[in-house]
Amino acid sequence: MDLLAANLIASLLTLIAFTLVALWYLAPALKRKPLAGALTILLWFHAFRYVALQIFSAGAVGGLNASSGTLQTIAFGDLVTAVLALISIAALRRELGGAARVLVWATAIIGTADLVSATMVGISGHLIDTASNWSWIILAVYVPVLWITAVMLFWQLLTRRNELLSSADAASSKTS
User: Which residues, 6+ apart, have CB-to-CB distance to 147 below 8 Å?
Assistant: First the structure.
């Protein structure tokens, strides 16, 4: 079996498996949590997206055949999303209310745009064909999990949009 077929099969199986985990376990657990807690859980999956920085070593010594621009597009979008996710988590923990909601929306939008961009760049650059070692694990396991949790972030933000995030939100709604 060639590397492309192996990666596509592994990615599809991860997508199926984590979709089932998300539907059967994660979604019901999130429904029982306050919105801030549910968003925090989902954001933690994106907080580690900085692992995409390994693509520079994969390109330099690991045999990943990609241009410098491709490597930067993939790595820096994930790095920005990871930083936003960490800031969002901190804002949720500090109960910053509306500011936290805006940060979570920014993380969801920028992170999803990055996933779309990196997927398109990866496909056009045939990166799946030369991914190996950690790059292969990230593509076959972590990226499908990021897609599922990105969808779940939007699901939480949209279906629970009227739910307050913090006690600061509750105080400001009482004065309005």
Answer: 15, 115
